[in-house]
């Protein structure tokens, strides 16, 4: 049986390009679809790709695959094969480490423009954490093999990726230091301040900021028990700094949080 013909509409000023096989019975066109412009803009927000030229970004865009995840859906689990990295287009996800006794801790959260699973670009080792979608999340996926090929062709991408990993390591070290030396109140206030900053970078106003995290989520990010975090959040609410709701809270006075961070 003959393979089906793949037809793609040419861009203005260009001719239609031939289709190429990616697997038996599966073809794709070498023509980049119009959505590639949005993908290129998204990649520019990622430190790893931010200084690449248009042609280089186009090459990366050609190997991306769109993915969607429902709230609570697992992107990959700790211990899975490491073969794909992801960039968040919309929504949020979190990295979780789980203990054999059932306890878990949230290591990091990811929003639009954030990359995770990037170690897959270097090797095929097992995943070091579980990634779970917090809400409806859209992302683009890049297969590790495709990315390693690009790294060989464009060493400047590799240099920037090393810088991004270095920043992630520093953030982890800073968090460990906070958990070792700061009080629960200071850690929770610092987490809230970081979430406010992230929300504003995504377009939230300078006034009230909605944070869609549960008390358990905030406790895990702060490295504390839910009970301890809950008591401090009640203190902040009585002071008029926040208002709590089911699975969310509103920060009214982000500057006031700094008084609790030391």
Describe the structure.
Helix content is 37%, strand content 24%. By secondary structure, it is an alpha+beta fold. The longest helix is centred in the middle third of the chain and has 27 residues, at 155-181. It has a 4-stranded antiparallel sheet. It has helices spanning 36-44, 54-62, 144-153, 155-181, 184-201, 215-222, 226-238, 254-257; strands at 19-23, 26-29, 64-69, 74-76, 84-90, 93-98, 104-110, 115-116, 130-133, 137-143, 209-211, 242-245, 248-251. It is globular, with a radius of gyration of 21 Å. The chain folds into 3 domains: 1-30, no CATH class; 32-177, Jelly Rolls; 182-260, Winged helix-like DNA-binding domain superfamily/Winged helix DNA-binding domain (Arc Repressor Mutant, subunit A, Orthogonal Bundle). A hairpin with a 5-residue loop joins strand 6 (93-98) and strand 7 (104-110). It has 8 helices and 13 strands. Helix 1 crosses helix 2, helix 5 packs across helix 6 (215-222) and helix 6 (215-222) packs across helix 7 (226-238).
Write the layout of secondary structure elements.
Layout: E1 19-23, E2 26-29, H1 36-44, H2 54-62, E3 64-69, E4 74-76, E5 84-90, E6 93-98, E7 104-110, E8 115-116, E9 130-133, E10 137-143, H3 144-153, H4 155-181, H5 184-201, E11 209-211, H6 215-222, H7 226-238, E12 242-245, E13 248-251, H8 254-257
Antiparallel strand pairs: 1-2, 3-10, 4-9, 5-8, 5-10, 6-7, 6-9, 11-13, 12-13
Helix pairs in contact: 1-2, 3-4, 5-6, 6-7
